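Milestone M4 deliverable, item 7.
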Amino acid sequence: MTVRVVLADDQPLARSGLRVLMADHSDLEVVGEAATGAEAVRLVNDTRPDVVVMDIRMPGMDGIEATRLITAGPATTRVLVLTTFDEDDHVYGALRAGASGFLVKDMALDDILAAIRVVAAGDALIAPGVTRRLIADFVGRPAAVRERSPRPVEGITEREREVLTLVGRGRSNTEIAEDLFITVATAKSHVSRLLTKLGARDRIQLVITAYEMGLVTVSR
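Output delivered:
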């Protein structure tokens, strides 16, 4: 199945690089390009892509507001934020807005393409190296800023607690299965139940929850 993608970035070279690379992959198709958040929202409404690769800093409507509008709309489009993390502290706003993934622009292009496929398949992804800094800053903010209150671990089994801890450490379903000596299908089932029980939208929210519950700590 072909993954239909919209590229949203105010830098033409950034869009061009991804478009040229994706042209060599038959399972990925660029169906539109946007230089602003408003254009991205319009393209999603017009083309209903599977994934939007979204920059944050764009003129006019930024990527955060565009993400909020896209994920709140009727389309099933998922948003993959591609940003320069060290220079952009608005990534937390994109998390709350409903983004399904976070990547940094200095990642290998092939890794970015792999992330597009992961997000299109319904999973969520945070780039290696970003998770620790993202969570460290997020959980260190006052609750009023984080818009979440710490919650006790209630209503989940001991095995689900173990799975949630591993999700918080950034482990994939395959890695969780290896760590706990269970099948990948069983690991995926545990993650699905955690999403339901904890009212989490996706894997990224499970990561945040694991930190808030104290199952995973940040090394300072």
